[in-house]
């Protein structure tokens, strides 16, 4: 059985909720990623910040990214998956919430992220096509 831990990109990094968006953008550039999980003071997942969030919800709204924190953009209930969850469960979680990135948690710690690129490397063409259809479908 293939698990979330098998297909994830390991070495994911948190961005603390108190960190500013300009620092988040710098970290994204340094790590060559488009999203960072947001952690609270107890290193618990409280959201995910994307490069698009920074542009659309901060810069385009006329806000200063050096004054807005990652936590201020955290919305809703963050979704995650256990490292030992099977791939079908991963796909169900992503489909059910129409999300493209999913943090992987083991022993209450962030151990990786699953993105579209990870799915493309590990799924059959049929599985990938089905996932894309459901995630990109208009709700």
Automatic annotation (TrEMBL):
Pfam families: CBS (PF00571)
SUPFAM superfamilies linked to this entry: CBS-domain pair
Keyword flag Signal: no
Signal peptide as annotated in the record: none
Annotated PROSITE patterns: CBS (PS51371)
Keywords: CBS domain
Name of the protein: Hypoxic response protein 1
Organism: Streptomyces longispororuber
Lineage of the species this protein comes from: Bacteria, Bacillati, Actinomycetota, Actinomycetes, Kitasatosporales
The gene coding this protein: hrp1
């Amino acid at each position: 059985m293939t698990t979330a831990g098998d297909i994830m990109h390991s070495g994911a990094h948190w961005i603390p909720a108190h960190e500013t968006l300009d620092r988040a953008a710098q970290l994204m550039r340094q790590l060559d990623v488009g999203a960072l999980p947001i952690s609270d003071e107890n290193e618990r997942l409280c959201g995910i910040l994307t490069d698009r969030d920074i542009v659309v919800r901060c810069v385009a709204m006329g806000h200063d990214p050096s004054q807005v924190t990652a936590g201020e953009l955290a919305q809703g209930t963050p979704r995650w998956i256990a490292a030992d969850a099977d791939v079908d469960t991963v796909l169900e979680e992503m489909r059910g919430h129409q999300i493209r990135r999913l943090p992987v948690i083991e022993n209450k710690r962030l151990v990786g992220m699953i993105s579209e690129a990870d799915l493309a490397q590990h799924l059959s063409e049929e599985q990938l096509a089905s996932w894309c259809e459901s995630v990109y479908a208009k709700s």
